[in-house]
Amino acid sequence: MINFSDRLKKLKDRRQGTAQRYALDEGYTALASAYDLRPYEDYEKVKDSDAIRYVIGAMAPVSAQSTKVSIEEGERVANTLVSMLKTDLINTEFRLQGSVALDIHIEGHSDVDMLILKKDVVQVQIPILPLTNYEDAPDKRSMLEQVKEIRLESENKLKSRYYQATVDCSNRKSISISGGSLARKVDIVPSCWLDTHDYQRSGQQHDRGIKIYDKEKHEFIENKPFLHIKKVGDKDYIYNGNLKKVVRLMKNIVADMPDYKKKSAKELTSFDLTSIAYHMNSDLNCHNQLPLLLVQRLNNWLEILKDNKVLRESLKSPDGTQFIFNKAEKYEALELLSKEVSDLAASIYRDLYPQDYTKDFNKFANRIVYT
């Protein structure tokens, strides 16, 4: 049996921080240990079972104010780094990517992913298309060496500037800064632009690729984060916010697994979970007062993916750059996630229909939830 009272507590702590932390962050030091000053959210007012309240809360975005703070903190750190690099004649610019950019983060104090991009030189997909205007770069070093320089100089400058914080340079693709004066953990990702043929035709940022520097392997990792953001955002708009609701629900379910399960389930990254939800397509089409129907459809979709290897192995990320299930460990993670979603649906069913043992989740289509 799932302890939803415990899950609701964890959910609130993720979204707003603990009561003590919230009080300290808001300046109520004297009240930090005596009162829970955190605001009451809409999902907590739902007049249904704890299981249903959990679903509503797990699907909801974190507060706009908290997201705003995350974005501002990421931009503040990135701006500072860009300025410091410029003193060494290294011209860069920054862009936000990841879960915060898509508003699918599930924690009020989420990590913020900031791309630090070489500004004055780009890589270009060849053959270069007609009517484009590219010139040879004056810096004759390879792009790999130029972005490596950004990575190494960023490490030095961030350690110097944020000496009271923890600057972790151990990750292959990013530098993490946390603590000290920072309100959020910020991940700095040194990279460069890749002007794809699509970008050469359209001039639209979402068609532009990037190459992230892998410090360990001294090579680039290519992806299209802005196309991913656009495709997910467009489909979410078509389906009235339901795509992002499903992503947040899955991410919260994984976050609430016991540690021995969570370690395996996290083989499916936030990017993978978003991609899985993206391919639900018309199953995302349901009224916002029928969130339990989304649970039923997610449960069905995960069962289909478990059972249909050909379909599962054919699915790509929204930007088309990679297959979702590209290693065996991700199938194991899918099995765990599918079982958790099935248990969640069964718990809701028991609350709604305690005398009915058929577990006909199709009944969720008729169960309105008022928020």
Main sheet summary: 8 strands, mixed
Our count of domains comes out at 2
Give the C-alpha Rg.
Answer: 23 Å
Number of strands: 8
β-strand percent reads 5-15%
Identify the overall geometry. globular
Q: Span between N and C termini?
A: 25 Å
Helix content: 40-55%
- SSE sequence, one letter per element: HHHHEHEEHEEEHEEHHHHHHH
Q: So how many helices?
A: 14
Q: What is the CATH topology classification name of the largest domain?
A: Beta Polymerase, domain 2
Name the assembly state.
single chain
CATH H level of the largest domain: which superfamily? Beta Polymerase, domain 2
Q: Which regions have little confidence, pLDDT < 50, spanning 5+ residues?
A: none
Mean pLDDT: 94
CATH class of the largest domain: Alpha Beta
Structural class: alpha+beta
Question: Could you say what the CATH architecture of the largest domain is?
Answer: 2-Layer Sandwich
Layout of secondary structure:
Blueprint: H1 4-16, H2 19-25, H3 50-59, H4 64-86, E1 92-97, H5 99-102, E2 112-118, E3 123-124, H6 143-161, E4 166-168, E5 175-178, E6 186-195, H7 197-202, E7 209-214, E8 219-223, H8 225-238, H9 242-255, H10 259-265, H11 270-278, H12 291-307, H13 309-314, H14 328-352
Parallel strand pairs: 2-6, 3-6
Antiparallel strand pairs: 1-2, 4-5, 5-6, 6-7, 7-8
Question: Top keywords for this entry?
Answer:
globular; about 375 residues; Beta Polymerase, domain 2; alpha+beta; eight-stranded mixed β-sheet; single chain
How is this structure best described in words?
This protein is an alpha+beta fold. The chain has two domains: 64-223, Beta Polymerase, domain 2, CATH 3.30.460.10; 230-366, no CATH class. Helix content is 47%, strand content 12%. It is built from 14 helices and eight strands. It has helices at residues 4-16, 19-25, 50-59, 64-86, 99-102, 143-161, 197-202, 225-238, 242-255, 259-265, 270-278, 291-307, 309-314, 328-352, and strands spanning 92-97, 112-118, 123-124, 166-168, 175-178, 186-195, 209-214, 219-223. Strands 1, 2, 3, 4, 5, 6, 7 and 8 form an eight-stranded mixed β-sheet that branches. α3 (50-59) crosses α9 and α9 (242-255) crosses α11. The longest helix is centred in the last third of the chain and has 25 residues, at 328-352. It is globular. The two termini are 25 Å apart. The mean pLDDT is 94.
